């Protein structure tokens, strides 16, 4: 499942550079995550890097974009051009 940034975001700028897929960008009021690019860092890291660095714990699983580990891995492979 992709991640989402809640309105508790304080725009601290630490999450955006941590995303290996470039899925995080500045939105109108807070940072946002593009679900088509978010793999929860599957294929890159053991844990979601944005969640690890967020000082206010405002990055959660997006209930509107539920995906299995296999789907996240396939998305990673598509984005990076890698094959498992």
Automatic annotation (TrEMBL):
<dbReference type="InterPro" id="IPR017896">
    <property type="entry name" value="4Fe4S_Fe-S-bd"/>
</dbReference>
<dbReference type="InterPro" id="IPR050157">
    <property type="entry name" value="PSI_iron-sulfur_center"/>
</dbReference>
<dbReference type="InterPro" id="IPR047927">
    <property type="entry name" value="YfhL-like"/>
</dbReference>
<feature type="domain" description="4Fe-4S ferredoxin-type">
    <location>
        <begin position="1"/>
        <end position="29"/>
    </location>
</feature>
<keyword id="KW-0004">4Fe-4S</keyword>
<protein>
    <submittedName>
        <fullName>YfhL family 4Fe-4S dicluster ferredoxin</fullName>
    </submittedName>
</protein>
<dbReference type="InterPro" id="IPR017900">
    <property type="entry name" value="4Fe4S_Fe_S_CS"/>
</dbReference>
<feature type="domain" description="4Fe-4S ferredoxin-type">
    <location>
        <begin position="31"/>
        <end position="64"/>
    </location>
</feature>
<keyword id="KW-0408">Iron</keyword>
<keyword id="KW-0411">Iron-sulfur</keyword>
<keyword id="KW-0479">Metal-binding</keyword>
<dbReference type="Pfam" id="PF00037">
    <property type="entry name" value="Fer4"/>
</dbReference>
